[in-house]
Amino acid sequence: MAVVEGFLVATLLLSCLASTSYGVTFSSLQKTLVVSASNQQGKVLKGGEGNITITWSYNNSFPAGTDSAYKTVKVKLCYAPISQQDRAWRKTVDNLEKDKTCQHNIVSRPYSPSNNKFTWSVERDVPTATYFIRAYAYNSADEEVAFGQNTDAHKTTNLFQVEAISGRHASLDIASICFSAFSIVSLFGFFFLEKRKAKSAEKK
Amino acid sequence: MADEENSPGSSMHGVTGKEQSFAFSVAADPTIPTDSTAKFALPVDSEHKSKVFKILSFANPHMRTFHLSWISFFTCFVSTFAAAPLVPIIRDDLNLTKTDIGNAGIASVSGSIFSRLVMGAACDLLGPRYACAFLIMLSAPTVFCMSFVSSAGGYIVVRFMIGFSLATFVSCQYWMSTMFNSRIIGLVNGTAAGWGNMGGGATQLLMPVLYELIRRAGATPFTAWRIAFFIPGWLHVIMGLLVLGLGQDLPDGNLSTLQKKGDVPKDQFSKVLWYAITNYRTWIFVLLYGMSLGVELTTDNVIAEYFFDRFDLKLHTAGTIAATFGMANIVSRPFGGLMSDIAARRFGMRGRLWNLWILQTAGGIFCICLGRANTLPLSITSMILFSIGAQAACGATFGIIPFLSRRSLGVISGLTGAGGNFGSGLTQLLFFTNSKYSTATGLSLMGIMIVACTIPVTLVHFPQWGSMFLPPSKDASKFNEESYYGSEWNEEEKEKGLHHGSLKFAENSRSERGRRVLSVSTPPNSTPPCV
Predict the structure, then answer these.
(1) Are A35 and A58 spatial neighbours (Cβ–Cβ below 8 Å)?
(2) Complex prediction ipTM
(3) Residue from B34, B398, B339, B496 nearest B192 by CA
(4) Least buried of A77, B85, B196, B258, by fewest C-beta within 10 Å?
(5) TM spans, by residue (chain A) (predicted)?
(6) Could you tell me the pTM of the whole model?
(7) Number of helices and strands in chain A (H, E)
(8) pLDDT at B531 over 70
(9) Which residues in chain A touch residue B86, judged by CB atoms under 8 angstroms apart?
(10) Which residues on chain B are in Cβ contact (under 8 Å) with A8?
(11) Which of B100, B103, B226 to mutate to test the interface with A (most CBs of A within 10 A)?
(12) Distance between CA B280 and CA A156 in Å, rounded?
């Protein structure tokens, strides 16, 4: 018992000492990048088929030298609020380490103020949802220092929808039916066979 | 023999280790005569039930039946909870909301509420071998159906149908009681149930690994999880065929052959049901088992997703951690039953009740800790302690159930089992289906509910043995074991001698008085116990 108690106390102490690293917050970032995507209003992108062209550049209206720390830019696919409803695993939190808004990486490029363009074809593991595009600028310590997104602050404009592949295949369906049929047929086959054997044994 | 109570007609019979074998009226005698004319690998009693429990043996028919039985039950647990560790993938494929996921979890445990009740009758009619084989092979198509699912509704329906297979619990316990002597049946049944429940843990390990392998072989994520479901489906078919090919209902052969022998005084179902539902203790245990087995099933459904989301782990890491919850069953359920027996040796039934209260409340407290733990090591520790508490409480519950009633044991066991599943559905509905609070808060609230709903065990009172806080009645001649078990029969039935089985059981159950049994004077109209 004492050993168990000691173990529990040690775990408690260790967990208190464990660093609760507090990362960069989203609200501290400046929107210095201008991001736009080529999606057409109302058109649904299909997983595995559709593609979208993304361009991003530095917004020159900010004071010169603001982008001196930017080293890389990562462009990500992010969930719109409607796709976050009732789905806590896509929640937006200010602490970027815990934030789950942008879960899919599109591309990662070294920073350049202009002439950035990328055509992304929607991968087959992207779920059905409504999205927007966001780009984060990172410094040399790989921390977020700025961002840009193709929608407004409330994430209501310029959203686009992706329709995922279903994952179903005709071959799977057929295999499934075959195995199910085998199961039922062998069960009843066994049952009636034994009944017949019992009846013929009784008759003898 | 008129007192042939160990017949296929009495489901759940012999779950307690205290019932005597009825061919020889030896009350509480540790030695049961071996039938030396029988040619079995293990020593058997006069009914050819095994007297020993050799875990590593596969001797036909007793130990072979044990292994077929627990592995079938294990397989059904694997397939019922197979979706749980894959939910992070499935929720993206089918665009599920938290409500959908919660409803599917509830559906997965609700189906067997009914199927467990029906299964008892099926075992009586078809024998445990066919009952088990029918269920496991007819639920194989439901597992294969996962490949067709493309919406939340379909997902919920398929999980509901797969959940029916959990009724193999009943066939498992029934089959054990036809093969093993009642002295050891408590341990045998506890081990079979515990090892079967382990399937809920093994699946958390198995399914993510299968998913990874299939994905690496080239499948996309949304197809890989569907293919992964074929493995539990194949297990169903394989176990069904093994049960049909290698199993037999009774030590001497199959049911149809043996039903010809002897006349069995069959009890009236309406009476059996009446005495079960009018015994207030039945309902307290229905509630209690919902807070031990029920929360165990709920946790099987939510814990992998919880670790994946809360601590940002990889899918198979979350699965491994979640697996330790269910795998603890290998020892913790038998441990609970053992602690119950040890407590009973000194304190009798009061010891069993206290043991149950302590284990279940401890489980509840660690569940609260699990929800509040913010770091991974603390969370895992709380989870392991919670699993031990809840699962040992399951074992301890079935250490007490056999004493609630002799006549209605089968129905009470069935109701308790159904209560377990109901508790699971209820806790999932209350705490894990809506987005009002996070999974972590849901776990803490569930822990509070466990602690609160375990308090009614203090109300369980046996006139002849007492309860947690009250001693037994002073008037030993009026309130004794015989009067308690005899009260389930009316005068007419007593005149026909139908209650003799209950009287014999009453004699054996005197050990539930604890150490006082030696000093108690026996009622004048029963045979003195040989202690």
Answers:
(1) no
(2) 0.83
(3) B398
(4) B258
(5) 174-193
(6) 0.82
(7) 3, 10
(8) no
(9) none
(10) 381
(11) B226
(12) 58
